[in-house]
Amino acid sequence: MTFTVAADLPQTAVACPCPRCRQMDILLTFVPDACFTLLSGTNDIGQHQVHRHPNRHFSCSLCGTAVFIVDARPDGSVLRGINLRCVPIADPGAMSVRWVDGAHH
């Protein structure tokens, strides 16, 4: 699966302490939906939804890596949560981390 994101790399990544996100070691940045373009791998995408939360999570159906989230906001806008560990030029070790409680919102 390959994609492009028309945005600068963030200084801060978002992390969730829920068991699933911790297990998958996900670090996110959120961008407007229009900034994201999926280039290849549409047949290799798995999708799931966590409980009744409106966000849709997409992962590689071949290796299981969590790649991105489609985050439908209450105001009708849509954001993409990009797993920075899937971005070759990102250096997560150089970013600060902001923890959010994704398990309870």
Automatic annotation (TrEMBL):
Keyword RNA-binding on entry: no
Location of the CENP-V/GFA domain: 1-105
Entries under InterPro entries matching the protein: CENP-V-like, CENP-V/GFA, Mss4-like_sf
Top-level division of the source organism's lineage: Bacteria
PANTHER family: CENP-V_GFA DOMAIN-CONTAINING PROTEIN (PTHR28620:SF1), CENTROMERE PROTEIN V (PTHR28620)
One function term, GO molecular function aspect: carbon-sulfur lyase activity
This protein's name: CENP-V/GFA domain-containing protein
Keyword Signal: no
Alphabetized UniProt keyword annotations: Metal-binding, Zinc
Coiled-coil ranges from the UniProt annotation: none
Organism: Prosthecodimorpha hirschii
Family stated for the protein in its record: Belongs to the Gfa family.
